[in-house]
Specification:
- The complex is a heterodimer of chains A (439) and B (294).
- By secondary structure, chain A is of the alpha+beta class.
- Chain A has 19 helices and nine strands.
- Chain A starts with a helix and ends in a 5-residue tail after the last helix.
- Chain B has two domains: 54 residues, no CATH class; 209 residues, MetI-like fold (Orthogonal Bundle).
- In chain B, helix 11 crosses helix 15.
- The two termini of chain B are 30 Å apart.
- Classes of the chains: A alpha+beta (439), B mainly alpha (294).
Chain lengths: 439, 294
């Protein structure tokens, strides 16, 4: 009887306790892309929520271009739909300058901000303030098949040149056995073929714009670089190279259809994983090839986490970002998912970690490539923009994609290299005039 | 003579007929049309078939040379299941597709009634204008709608999506209902009126039961259009109200292989509407051909 008399009171107290707990929990919305490292982050939601019982995570995973469009709309209209955004080195400085992002100031000592790789930190800053924290970073490098190189008696030098790469591609190209001499990006898009092509133009001594923002796409350096690219990929590339992007080339290389591949360092972990790659045991690494100058011969990119100024839960968002980009998180991934799966290219300590060095023999190449990329000085002649494989202005997305289409048309043979570059030059001039950079 | 033998007699041409006679050519023509029908059906179905089998491949096999011979695996389905709450997205799709269809029918029935039975000088023009709104690319009105939704708190809500889908499908729903209503003999409604039925009773007890196949097929079409819509759902929702189209989009990846997982997710996303369409195909065909042969 006693119990039943107290039951309503007990129930009420329990309900209030549950309600109190629910009220105290803050849900933050994290917008991200569907890359492997982000999928791992999503799978570790429980670990974060256990460590921070007052915060719950709600994920929005979208395709990269859709995500970019959604975030731009939301941030420009102050929609406040997201509390954490996954953005790259292209957007962060521009959005930081406009006041769209919350700067990361007074970071706690145990976060060890100086442990973050300097080029990555610089790429995510504007006017000395850090506007996003890097989740993973990448540069570009060369992957090659050691078995094919040995068979052909080719020895990989410490720093290969593009001229050498062309000769090797000619020797190793074997269409009868479905092995292409080289695989490179051909799919048009500012983040696809133009990421690679920009580094090629840089190392051939070219640049996107002169110091007065006049486009230089029809310059002799561009002609030489694109002529070289079309000849190399057209003659010694896989069939249908103009529709191959990062994913397609990774699949081709993993299946043993490419003797060489120059692309993102972040592919290393996957093509070195025997579960995903048939060439894991015959994989060689080398720095990205160079031509006239080593400047800008390999890119720098980082996917980073930022807080939009429109978020109403900035403190909780900051707590999550500090966790997801910390050393502690990297160790958690290493222990639960294996050391080749840790997000690369963000912290010095990752590369100093013995477990990582043992699991990832490519670690030194990646670290050197990351440290050697300087977005503020990536061209032989001085240029007015920052960015190695992109130009850090809002107009670049459309310009880059348009130029990418012209170059793809040269690759498919629909236009000559000269025609393609002239078309690209005219389109870029128009875009820059409209945007008010030139008269 | 039995009915069966009559049919047989009709189907088999008399032996004495010379080659190339009209009856002989009817058979050839029928065969030709049957073949053409099957070819078109196979062509339309092929991408769906390929998507379904790709879902049962490994990521490596999915991107390898196209082949029908492979060892099927449920790996992608397991991964897709483990990673995101399919049920939540599916529930949103059901709520939004059926909610918007119901709302569109509620608005369109009185509208089509008035246009079909009480036309004015401007009815034809209004109908054409309504259809012309479908010619505007949706991205053209994205910004104003996004801002209005932000201000009234409709972003990432099912209600918001239901409103947009209703507006999106309304012109088609009105047009279809108008055509069905127009084919209905006026005399029946007039007889009802003579018996003292009010306009509301006339619509509810005479018009709706008689044009039910048409209304059903219009509703089905509206459900399918809402189910498959991707532009608005990707732009106006984030997590709470995101339907299956957003679920599919989340499996595309800029770095890493995703074809098998994407195919598995797509198969799971279209399965409910495919089954629904298959179950209701009789009503749909009946509705679409309603009044076609008088």
């Amino acid at each position: 009887m006693k119990l039943s008399r107290h039951l309503p009171l007990t129930t009420l107290a329990a309900a209030m306790a549950v309600a109190g707990q629910t009220q105290a929990q803050t849900e933050i919305t994290v917008a991200t892309v569907n890359n492997n490292d982000m999928v791992i982050m999503q799978s570790l939601t429980d670990a974060f929520e256990q460590a921070h019982p007052d915060i719950t995570l709600d994920w929005v995973v979208l395709e990269e271009n859709v995500l970019r469009q959604r975030m731009t709309t939301d941030i420009a209209t102050q929609g406040g739909q997201f509390d954490v955004m996954t953005i790259g080195t292209y957007e962060v400085p521009m959005w930081g300058e406009r006041g769209w992002l919350v700067p990361f100031e007074d970071l706690p000592d145990d976060y060890q901000v100086d442990d973050l790789l300097k080029p990555v930190r610089d790429g995510l800053s504007h006017d000395g303030s850090l506007y996003a924290l890097p989740f993973y970073g990448e540069s570009s490098m060369m992957f090659y098949r050691t078995d094919l190189f040995e068979e052909a008696g080719i020895e990989m030098p410490e720093q290969p040149s593009w001229e050498e790469v062309r000769d090797w591609a000619e020797t190793l190209h074997d269409p009868d056995n479905e092995v292409a001499g080289i695989c490179l990006r051909g799919k048009p898009g500012w983040g696809e073929n133009m990421a690679f092509v920009s580094t090629l133009v840089n190392t051939f001594g070219g640049r996107w714009f002169d110091m007065d923002w006049n486009p230089e796409i029809d310059s002799p350096e561009w002609q030489e670089a694109i002529g070289f690219y079309v000849d190399l990929l057209g003659n010694y590339g896989p069939p249908g190279a103009s529709s191959n992007g990062f994913n397609e080339n990774q699949a081709l290389f993993s299946r043993g259809n490419c003797a060489m591949w120059v692309d993102a360092t972040s592919a290393a972990g996957r093509i070195y994983n025997p579960d995903e790659s048939q060439v894991a045991d015959k994989l060689g690494f080398a720095p990205a090839p160079v031509a006239e100058t080593p400047k800008g011969s390999h890119w720098l990119w980082s996917w980073a986490l930022a807080i939009p100024a429109s978020s109403e839960k900035q403190d909780e968002a900051r707590t999550f970002i500090l966790w997801a980009t910390s050393q502690e998180y990297i160790e958690l991934v290493g222990e639960t998912e294996g050391w080749t799966s840790v997000p690369p290219g963000t912290r010095e300590s990752t590369y100093a970690n013995e477990n990582y060095q043992e699991a990832a023999p490519f670690a030194d190449f990646v670290l050197d490539a990351m440290k050697g990329a300087d977005p503020t000085d990536s061209t032989l002649e001085p240029s007015p923009y920052t960015g190695v494989q992109f130009v850090g202005i809002p107009e670049f997305q459309s310009i880059g994609t348009q130029v990418g289409q012209s170059i793809a048309s040269a690759l498919t043979g629909d236009a000559s290299v000269e025609e393609a570059l002239q078309t690209a030059q005219r389109a870029t001039e128009r875009a820059m005039q409209r945007a008010g950079y030139i008269d | 003579m039995t009915i069966a033998s009559t049919k047989q007699d009709r189907a088999a041409p008399p032996q004495s007929l010379p080659k190339g006679s009209p009856l002989g050519s009817i058979d050839t023509r029928r065969l030709g049309f049957t073949l053409l029908g099957w070819t078109v059906a196979c062509l339309i179905f092929f991408p769906i078939f390929w998507m379904v089998i790709t879902g049962f491949k490994t990521e490596a096999a999915a991107i390898a040379d196209p082949s029908l011979i492979f060892s099927p695996t449920l790996e992608s389905y397991q991964e897709v299941q483990a990673r995101s709450g399919y049920a939540r997205f599916a529930l949103n799709s059901v709520a939004v597709a059926f909610g918007s269809t119901l709302l569109a029918l509620l608005i369109a029935i009185p509208c089509a009634y008035s246009m079909a039975f009480l036309p004015t000088k401007r009815t034809k023009g209004t109908l054409l204008w309504m259809l012309s709104t479908k010619m505007l690319p949706p991205v053209g009105v994205l910004m104003p709608i996004y801002l209005i939704f932000r201000d009234v708190g409709l972003l990432d809500t099912r209600t918001g999506l239901i409103i947009v889908y209703t507006l999106m499908n309304l012109p088609i729903v009105v047009w279809m209902l108008y055509t069905f209503f127009k084919d209905m003999p006026r005399d029946i409604l007039e007889a009802g009126r003579m018996d003292g039925a009010t306009t509301f009773q006339e619509v509810l007890f005479l018009l709706l039961p008689l044009t039910l196949p048409g209304i059903a097929s219009t509703g089905l079409l509206s459900v399918i259009l809402s189910w498959n819509e991707a532009f608005w759902s990707l732009n106006l929702t984030s997590s709470k109200a995101a339907p299956l189209t957003a679920y599919i989009a989340s499996f595309s990846s800029p770095e890493g292989l995703f074809w098998a997982k994407l195919s598995a997710a797509s198969t799971m996303a279209i399965a409910p509407i495919l089954i629904f369409g298959w179950m209701t195909q009789k009503q749909m065909v009946r509705g679409l051909t309603f009044g076609a042969v008088k």
